[in-house]
Amino acid sequence: MPALFRTAGRAVCCMIRPLSVVLLLAWLLPVGVFAAPPPAPLALDPAQRNWLEEHRQLRVGVVLQAPYAQYDRRLQQLAGANVELMESLARLLQVELVWYRYDDLAALEAAARDRRIDLAPGLSQTPAGLRLWLFSDPYMRVPHLLVGERNGGGAVELEQLGMTDPVAVRMPGPVADYLRGNYPNLALRAAASERQALQSLLRQEVRYAVLDEAQFGRLSREPEFAGLGMVGDIGFPQLLRVASRRDWPQLAAVLDAALRALPAKELEALRERWLLPKYPSLGESRGFWQNLSLLLAVLLLATMAIVAWLRRQQHVLETRLADARHTIELRDAAEEALRLTQFSVDESTVGILWVNWDSRVRYANRAAEDMLGYAQGALLERPLSDFEVSLSMDRWLGLWKRARAAEGPLSFETQCRRADGSELPADVSLSFLRFRESEYLLVFLTDVTERRRARAALEESEARLTGIAANVPGLVFRLERPHIDASVVFAFIGEGSESLVGYSASTLLQPDRGIRSLVHPDDRASYESTQEQALREERDWHWQGRILTQAGEPRWADIKATARRFDNGRVVWDGIVWDISANKRIELELADSRAQLRELSAHLETVREEEKARIAREVHDELGQVLTVLKLETSMCELAYAELDPGLGERLDNMKRLIAQLFQLVRDVATALRPPILDAGIASAIEWQAQRFEARTQIPCLVEVPESVPPLSDAKAIGLFRVLQEALTNVIRHAEAHTVTVRLSLEAGELCLYISDDGRGFSPSERRGSSFGLVGMRERVLMLGGRLSIDSQPGEGTTLRVCMFLDKEEAA
Fold first, then answer.
1. Going by fewer Cβ within 10 Å, which terminus of the chain is more open, N or C?
2. Which residues form the PAS domain (predicted)?
């Protein structure tokens, strides 16, 4: 059969060889193999000629894109329109070209920036390219064509097309941008390449396609696109230029001269050879194709007769060969499966025994031999009673019948005896097997030594945990949620519950009980809110409140639980309930004691302020009256006796000055005890105190108070004023500030006082407990029902904030 094919092939080759020679000559003539000799040297000026003499070798970079430049791997050379153009210019300039090929324009421009190439043909002039190249005059104009079916109705105008005539164009690209900007009525369809655009046209997905003349000329040679032709020009030509290095203007001038010297016919021939579309014209060679068709018909008839006979023979042979191959494949697959099965059984970690009806071993894998401590092959023909003493023949026959009839599970735990007499804890499973004419029981042995050891350790651990939980002076519990959508249940409650609340653990583990049922009704809301938040956020849980024992006795309890999340989504909370009744009783008594002490301190402070006010009034009224009388008597004495004794007048003047100083001292003492400005309102008192501070320290003090401040009770006004005095005193002593700001504001029913400075600041945590001034201010504010906060950092100043709630009368 192969000999017949070779004979027919030789006959066809002998007939086609002369035709191939003719076709080869017809192809070589247009390409230029028999081209004319190179033209005469180009006439250049002396400077250009000298430069060209120094640069006889030029490096040319081209982007591989048919038909401009393409690389023939068989011939190991470049071809294309741009390649032939540069070879013509090289003959004119009598220089040698060194070619460099690149896959895209970005790689070509990178090579130009690195000075690895000198010139590049076939580029279009762009603003970005002008920063990198010097461009020659255009040597070729490549229009963009509107392509459609050649049997259409002639030329087509783009203005006449509408949304019902879709046009395929490569996107993104300048051509698509031009069409979108100048012909908004077109229905453009994106295509990844020119070939894809033409294929869309063939599949009638679009009506027309837009691509340049070069690409259409290349693709039109393919039989697939033989029925397509140009139906219009979109008016957006591509001008091809030769780009050269910007630092070689002489090269740009030489290239312009050489391009002008090229004959127009040669450029047109180059365009026709590479760029213009080639439509098949069968009418021009009708006789050739008729003769070729006749020859091929004769050859086809002869070949068909031979092939028909050969195919019949081939079909018979192929059928036999396929059957034999299938049989071999099935046999190989069966053997491979048998080998894999045997290997799996031999290498299994589970001991496997094939046992006959007489309880003797017919096969044992390596795992069974290792478990029982026998050498390889030593288990064969041994009865099972050698390994399991309690397995008598009667019991074995009973197991045989049950396994043969498939009655219930045949699995049990036992103690096997090893070859050295030691015991082996094992799980035994039995399965009936019929192989050909024989029947066996498969015995599967699993070593459970570690499992039993782990089970014993787990039981011991559970017993230890139960004992510890029962002896802990509290109630130990575990809350568990199997997955995110499941409800939370108590998985464990220790026996200490009976000593704590009188209920047993089993009672509290009932579905409707739990710890929730022990909570005092008044505290149940806080219990549920803290528990739900901890469960929702999967974090630790802490709650303090009252619970009720079985006898109805209330007790204070503290619940703390730690959350743990596992990879499978399970979350558990392990916690304990402590009885803190004694501690809570002490805490409440201590809180009552502190409240009484604070009330006593407030009472003492009120008494002290009242005493200060009384003393201030007495000092101001009594001493003021006495000093006034003394001043009048001194003045009368001066009028009566000053002229009699000159020394007496001087003494009376000294007495009047001392009386004036005493007047000022009395006013200062009365003001210090209780400033009269407080009667004008807290806002006026704050401004007055700020002015005194600024006059005393020369530190600017900025004050901001609202236009209308509600009248405060005397205690609140004095308290705020005393806090302001103490804060300003601390600024003088410690802050080293340059500016102080005091602001009084009304915020959501509260009156807030802010005292800020830009001093050196301090750490509140370090001063806590060591500054009696801050402690006094805080206690004074707490006595008035307000709150005080300090914001300070070393080197960042200090801000003191005091807020007090306004009574209904004050707010009104």
1. C
2. 484-538
pLDDT of 16 > 60? The answer is: no
Q: How far is CA 666 from the centre of its chain?
A: 75
pLDDT digits (tens, 9 = 90+) for 121-167: 988 888 888 888 999 889 888 898 888 887 656 688 888 888 888 99
pLDDT, position 19: 41
Average pLDDT over residues 281-302: 70
**Domain 46-138+250-274: assigned CATH number:** 3.40.190.10
Q: Which two tokens stand for residue 542?
A: 């802490």
Q: Do domains 46-138+250-274 and 144-236 have the same CATH topology?
A: yes
Eight-state DSSP code of residue 310: H
Domain 350-447 sits in CATH at 3.30.450.20
Q: Which of 743, 671, 733, 666 is nearest to 701 (CA)?
A: 743
- Residue 192's Cβ-count burial label (10 Å; 0-12, 13-18, 19+) is exposed
User: pTM of the predicted model, to two decimals?
Assistant: 0.35
Every domain of the chain and the residues it spans? 46-138+250-274, 144-236, 350-447, 453-575, 580-674, 679-812
- Give pLDDT tens digits for 517-568: 888 888 888 888 888 888 888 888 888 888 888 777 888 888 888 888 887 7
Residue 742: both structure tokens together: 């005091």
The pair of three-digit structure tokens given for residue 42, joined into one six-digit string: 């180009």
If one looks up domain 144-236 in CATH, what number appears? Answer: 3.40.190.10
CATH number of 453-575: 3.30.450.20
Q: How many Cβ atoms are within 10 Å of 308's Cβ, its own excluded? A: 9
